[in-house]
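Lab meeting minutes (informal)
Scribe: AK
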Amino acid sequence: MSKYIVLVLVFFGTVFNSSAQEETKVEKEVELKEVIVVQKKKAIEQKADRTIFDFSEQPQLNSGSVLEGLKKLPGLIISDVAGMMYQGKQLEVYLDGRPLNIYSNELNSFLEGMPANSIEKVEVITQPGAEFPATSGGAIINIITSRTAKNYLSATYSSGVNFTDYDKTRARFNNSLLLNAKNKYFGWQLNIGQNYRESAQLSTITNKPISSPSVILSDTDADRVGRSTYVRSALKFDLKRDRLLLNYDVNFNNNDAYTLANGFGFNSDDFSKTKSNRQDVLATYQKYFDDVTKKLEFRFNFNRNASNFNLDSRLSNVSILDNSSLQDYFNFRIDYSQEVNFLDQTKISVGTLVDELSFEAENNNIQNLYYTRRTAAAYAEFQTDYKNFKFILGSRAEDYLIKGNTDTADLTPFKQFKFFPNASAQYNFDPQIFVSLNYNKKISLPSTSALNPNNTNYQNPNVDYSGNPQLQPTIFDNLEMKISAFDYAFVGYSVSSAKNQVVNRVSETSNTILNTSINVPELRIHNFNIGLPIPYMLFTKGLAETLKFDFNPDKINFLYAYASYQMHEIPNLNTKGFWIFNFMSQILLPKDISFIANYNYSTPNGNYYYFIARESFSHSLDFTFSKKFLNDNLSVAINFDDILNTNQQGFGSAGTDVLLQSKNDTRRFGFTLNYKIPTKNKLAKVDPSLLNNDKKEEGGLIGN
């Protein structure tokens, strides 16, 4: 067994050593005076505080929407009933380093409308440090869309088409164009795109009491059409030694749904329309010094989210729901860091932030919720290296003022000043093998979707959705230990203890279902996870020959296996854990065609907060074939998703006899292409991206 462990380490050591060599490989041709940097991106990269997933070179991830790509990431759970979690931690969603501040079905709609082939990479930050807002809660997922800018006009065109065939054929297609250039005065980037998607959703809610016959409370068949357009733009000005960055993003969503429904005592034929738009403005000023280790940055960010939801009966031709909301958010922050002469290498970081969010909700043009929150924060963090050790010690102080009112009463105010410490220790056995231990205390403020008393989902006489304006913030204590080898191989354990955790709760009264949010006084989530690569030549050539092989990451067939066990502890509730398995296989076919198979499965009967998975909530088999043409400028991929048509969900709700089942048209076929329009400029110089300029050299965020 020890020989096999050594083999795994040797395999990934040689793979990623060769990757590192390719990343720094420079080819020089004297005649043309040309410099070409050849980069090979890692599919997965493990760091002490985060895991980075590459999307740009992974056809199995970028063949559909961003939401569909995220669902394929090992360890990431996206559920209709409990939101988005990674290794047991609720995720705060960021786009290009800035918080989206949208949640629930509005967030899903936004991610469904964004093509996955417009994504560069995704960072899952499981241990946010002091420089991140304490309101990040358990973890952060940062979706990075940007590309590098060059000293000439360059363009990349991306497109994708997918089809499903259930009761009828439905189509989905997307197109996007990325342009960027730089001159001696400024640099600029422009990314424009659209997404059109037809989809189906079937859902059934059944009351199944033990002592009486089952009753179907709601059986719905929704035919949906979604339309999204977006523009992301950036300008960069070099002001002698300093730099000014300006970003403006705008997204529009226009979604329709025709829903046939029947159930206990009713039949309906309804039409719903959801319109939303999101605008985001960012200004960043970076001050540079003679000492290159000093960094000073000022950032101002403002975004606005407006949404309207209408539900009309096609049978009686009357309006059932007319709900709208408007959310404004701004923040201003200052960050400073500097290296000091202490031990081997030491850096001190300090900063401050002020932000404010206001949210208004209306029902039939009458305001029934006004909510505001203001946060003032300051932090200090100390990072040092000593021989093979790395230490981080930090603390963040935040002052909160939350208030508001409904149309009938004032909200319970929240005015507190709190400290949030964080600490990390890492020991490097080798540059690519380490063990780390991390702790942080965080807070999560209730999302505006959970507070909103108005329903922005489909409802009928037996089913209702409602927010809870009186929700209180959640305090987290997060502890994590991880052993990582060569990015892919790792073993980890984490525990997250929460007070006043916000969760969804489904209740049933007289055959009427209510889905709302509540605070749970105490909750603890345990998560164990392991990832292990297995080269196929181990079985064909044997151990001795495999150890002699000079691995190339582009020319190797292997299986990557991931497993995670998650356990939710809730007082006065007998809960069970569940396993999540992910297997990704890469096989290289003739003509340089890459075949990737991805299989996901979760075990049933485990508790997901107050929900019980009566069947696997993540079960699919996907195939992807890809090939590059035209000197690798054109990438083409063909995808077959959910081949077995097993991707569906079925949850029970603790304390009830209710069964909630849903099925989307997930079995689909399609293709995607990315074409990098070649340039004749042989002296092209690569410049940092404008859409997202990282603060930390190892991929950290700015403007959180």
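Next up, CB showed the second protein from the same session:
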Amino acid sequence: MNKYLSLVIVFVVTVFTSNAQVEENKTEKEVELNEVVVVKKKKAIEQKADRTVFDFSEQPQLNSGSVLEGLKKLPGLIISDVAGMMYQGKQLEVYLDGRPLNIYSNELNSFLEGMPANSIEKVEVITQPGAEFPATSGGAIINIITSRTAKKYLSATYSSGANFTDYDKTRVRFNNSLLLNARNNYFGWQINIGQNYRESAQWSIVTNQPTASPSVVLSDTDADRIGRSTYVKSALKFNLKRDRLLLNYDMNFNNNDAYTLANGFGFTSDDFSKTKSNRQDALITYQKYFEDVTKKLEFKFNFNRNRTDFNLDSRITNASILNNSSFQDYLNFKIDYSQEIKLLDQSKFSVGTLIDELSFEAESDGIENLNYTRRTVAAYAELQSDYKKFKFILGSRAEDYLIKGNTDTDELIPFKKFKFFPNASVQYNFHPQIFMSFNYNKKISLPSTSSLNPNNTNYQNPNVDYSGNPQLQPTIFDNFEMKISAFDYAFIGYSVSSAKNQVVNRVSENSNAISNTSINVPELKIHNFNLGLPIPYMLFTKGLNETLKFDFNPDKINFLYAYAGYQLHEIPDLETKGFWIFNFMSQILLPKDIKFIANYNYSTPNGNYYYFVAKESFSHSLDFTFSKKFLNDNLSVALNFDDILNTNRQGFGSAGTAVLLQSKYDTRRIGFTLNYKIPTKNKLAKVDSNLLNNDKKEEGGLIGN
């Protein structure tokens, strides 16, 4: 407890010392500050009241591989084989360009692996979604933004990258993408096309380690994988006098193969699996503008379709082991309206409504064994007000659910419920860039289709099986958060998420046979403490007083960004331990404007991750990146060395069993990326708004839902 108190005291003293120094030098630096504002710099990390924004476009250590690999390097974000994707203890609902992906588990991982990170502009992690967001967002939202700006007349950006690993053999990964855009007085267009080819390896061991008898290796697998992805993202924007019409259409295709050699208790196998998936997404947006610029009215209609086919065949017997497929359609229509009102110093009132429907069908060997439908009707109202140094948000969302379906043998437990989901936030500004905030919201998480799917869309053998649970029920969350943030980079926070009927993965063992499925936990609580602090290296050479006087740009100095997070999962009738996550990112400017970035991640072992116990660090890697810009900053080149120490592996025990799950990927790699912005020679060319993610709330900190 004394350690936590010391950290808080140091943080608060630093914040108020900085505040005093800023006020003291406010007058003498007024001209300098006005000049700096003219050119808007992208910030590597930006802390807002309800979210954290990570820039990818200018961060070579993040955009050197796939999106999935880049996300794993974000401080506080955990991606594991056993528990999915979490940020500061909250399960994440994944959005792409402001729209929910509605894919999960292996499908989601394949989708993110197939998308090159250098096609990403930024990532928003929204830890406190307001009433405007669907209550089904659960604990938090991660919004991956791929859009770029459109310019007058034709402009183009080419991105490419390649990575190599050398374990039992050399494997290669490469990607290419091209972004084209243009606009005139009547309409603008944008298209982004790309491909990704990746060779990778995975080694997994499942061991039963009973205390009264010798250990038994149940499954030892060696998988050689090949992934192929292509995508097209397109957008059109039409100016209709005051109003705007936007049309978006995306296509993603994945074709993945895996050759798996396995042996274990009582078996030997040599299998081949193929996973094919395609995703299509269409969006129509109409934005109505008024003479009163504070009024905004927007209509959105979104449709997406996902199909996945999974086949597992034995290369020894030439027989089919699994032949599973799924088909999903999702429809969404929403209306949002907002306007400023005369209340306190400044206020904005927002209302909206939404209706969506999801249908999901699963088949095994051509026989339908799950038919699932979900319909949601919702409405919300939210008030945002400023009063002196305070900011207030008060809102509520009402949602009505109807969930039904059947398997090939039984009806699903129906879920029909009408429920209110309130949210509230209070923020106090000590300084324009220093604030303290308190947040609360109630949310719900509906079981993902991957958790419901009774069919295995993963590898299996005689001793290991994966399956879903069609009878899962929704989860209700109560989320609380307190945070102090200073100058975007520094923050300290605490949050607690209390869940009822939380969906978690559970591994069971019976006579040396392992089953991995999803269950509802009646009650679960997750505590999270986190701290982020930038430390300029000049602090050690010039002292605190001189450092505070320096008006610096973080991109132009040498510094260390330190992040520490502590999580504790409380589960009734289970004794649990917490774990720490550490991330250190160091930037050093070398001669010739070469930027060197070292990134180190580490998590402490023996902590509980739901029902799993980390027997070793599940996030442990050291990465180096060297980058430089050429041709008037139009060409960016980066050289990356990932997992230099080859320490990135996972090992989890399962509570209530003697099972140990271990896995290792070919994470030690070397590669390069380049981005070339083909410059326009027309001096009249100017930046327009984003098309692939043209949303009225982007600059204000809220994405569409």
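CB comment: Residues 1-39, 683-689, 694-705 have pLDDT under 50 and may be disordered.
No objections, moving on.
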